[in-house]
Amino acid sequence: MTTTNLEEIKKIIKNELPTILKTDPSFRRYILQITKAYYPPKKKTEDRIEQLYQQLLQMQEKSDRKWEEWSKRWQQTQAEWNRKWEENEKRWEQTQAEWNRKWEEWSKRWEQTQAEWNRKWEENEKRWEQTQAEWNRKWEEWSKRWEQTQAEWNRKWEEWSKRWEQTQAEWNRKWEENEKRWEQTQAEWNRKWEENEKRWEENQRTINEILKRLEKIDKRHLYTIGALGARWGLYSEESFRNGLKAIIEESFGVEVIRYVDYDHEGEVFGRPDQIEIDLIVRNAELIACEIKSSMSKSDMYTLWRKKEFYEKKHQKKVDRVIVISPMVDPRAKPVAEKLGIEIYTHSDEFIEKEEKNIEDISS
């Protein structure tokens, strides 16, 4: 179908359709049935229009009510504004009058102040002229004094220069004299130094002879002191033993026994002899203790054999072996450590120093 034919058909339908719809009910129903999907029914449309109309009426009523409320508030606000405006007008008039009054007062004060300033300015002008004249007068006086002082300084400088030259010459003379005296003194000191050197050598020889004699005397005294020390050591051991026994028995509830027995087989000393050893009993613990003024390496072995002698004879094990001595031979310490003997003494450093001193004196 061409475009021309389609246009002609559309034109025919437009011309004939209204007449056909009016005259042919079945065709009209057919057309309505076809176009039903493109428009709502009449009843539905009327209901929708009625609903919209009611909504418009409600909106109109709300709007009228709000307008009345707003009009009332506007009238109240307008009245309030008018009242405040009148009050502000009154306050403004009062303020304006107050400002005018203050302005007049300030103007009067300004005129008075201006007049006062003018008066003071004139007074200051006069004082300035007087001060200027006074300064000029003082400047002239100071200038004169400065010239006089300058002349005085020049005079004193010349005098000081002359005195300095004289002093310099005097110092040079004294320096030369001191140089001569120093040379003489130096020669005298050298002479005396040589004499003192000779005397020193003679004194040194005398001192060496005295030291040799003192060394012989010291050796004799050392032997004497050693003998006294041995005797003192025996007494000290017994005193310390008795004191220690009293302290630990009375204060700590420990029993101290001075064990004395006879070694018929010579197990301790290699020959039959009496055995003495201190025993401390604390609860079930048995401690062998040796208190001596000095302990040597052989003394350590002897103490250990005493302990073994006691254990063998009485079938009791000694739990600890203790040595209490102010002087323990350093060679005895490894033995004690090996045998498990506990040592209680003073500082090892002190012992070593004393031994070294003894060796030095002996040599």
Compact summary:
The protein has 363 residues and is of the alpha/beta class.
Chart the SSEs and their pairings.
Elements: H1 3-23, H2 25-35, H3 42-252, E1 255-263, E2 273-282, E3 285-291, H4 297-314, E4 320-324, H5 332-339, E5 341-344, H6 348-362
Parallel strand pairs: 3-4, 4-5
Antiparallel strand pairs: 1-2, 2-3
Helix pairs in contact: 1-2, 4-5
For the terminal residues, how far apart are their CA atoms? 156 Å
String of helices and strands: HHHEEEHEHEH
Structural class: alpha/beta
Radius of gyration: 71 Å
- Unreliable segments of 5+ consecutive residues: 218-235
Q: Count of helices?
A: 6
Shape: flat
Strand content: 5-15%
Named CATH architecture of the domain at 254-362: 3-Layer(aba) Sandwich
Number of strands: 5
Mean pLDDT across all amino acids: 81
Largest sheet: 5 strands, mixed
Order of strands, widest sheet = 1-2-3-4-5
Helix content: over 70%
CATH class of the domain at 254-362: Alpha Beta
CATH fold descriptor of the domain at 254-362: Trna Endonuclease, Chain: A, domain 1
Coiled coil: 42-138
Keywords: Coiled coil
Protein name: DUF3782 domain-containing protein
Organism: Thermodesulfovibrio obliviosus
Q: What would your notes on this structure say?
A:
This protein has helices spanning 3-23, 25-35, 42-252, 297-314, 332-339, 348-362; strands spanning 255-263, 273-282, 285-291, 320-324, 341-344. The protein is 78% helix and 10% strand. It has a five-stranded mixed β-sheet with strand order 1-2-3-4-5, sandwiched between helices. Mean pLDDT is 81; it is low at 218-235. With 363 residues, the chain is α/β, with parallel strands linked by helices. It has a domain at 254-362: Trna Endonuclease, Chain: A, domain 1, CATH 3.40.1350.
